[in-house]
Amino acid sequence: QVQFVESGGGLVQAGGSLRLSCAASGSTFSIRAINWYRQVPGTKPTRVATISSGGIGDYVDSVKGRFTVSRDNAKNMVWLQMNNLTTEDTAVYYCNTVAQATLGSWGQGTQVTVSS
Fold it and tell me: Is the dihedral of CA 45, 5, 101, 66 positive or negative?
């Protein structure tokens, strides 16, 4: 199992940027695809980006061109660079594997609030 600690959230004005960090522990981190999810109150977490073990990113349409996911397997770190933020990006953001997300195992997340 991989454990995650998310950080880097905060309050930002619309059009601004934030860089989220995800620190992972666990020997299998480097071979796993890692997803970034976000959750608004009353809903389930939804995927916004994925990075493969080899560093290839994939994004949902709503964040394409604005978000960039990256990783450093040597440091057990994943990042989510978020640019041109909108109020619709306001959520708690989590990093996780698909398997752990399916099992309902989540870290504490990091709150991103975008003001208009």
Answer: positive
What is the per-residue burial (b if ≥16 Cβ within 10 Å, else e) of 50-83?
bbeeeeebebeeebeeebbbebeeeebbbbbebe
pLDDT tens, residue by residue, 61-108: 999 999 999 999 999 999 999 999 999 999 999 999 999 999 999 999
Return all residues near 73 (Cβ < 8 A) that are at least 6 apart.
29, 30, 53
Cα-only R_g, the chain: 13
67-72 vs 110-115, strand pairing mode: unpaired
